[in-house]
Amino acid sequence: MAFIRRNIEELQINPVTMIGKEWFLLTSGTPEDFNTMTCSWGGIGVLWNAPVLTAYVRTTRHTFGYLEKNDRFTVSVFPEEYRKALAFCGGHSGRDCDKVKETGLTPAVLDGVPAFAEAKRVFVCEKVYAQMLSKEDFIRKELVNDFYAKDAMHKMYLGKITAVYEKQA
Question: Which of 3.50.50.60, 2.30.110.10, 3.60.110.10, 3.40.30.10 is the CATH number of 3-167?
Answer without folding.
Answer: 2.30.110.10
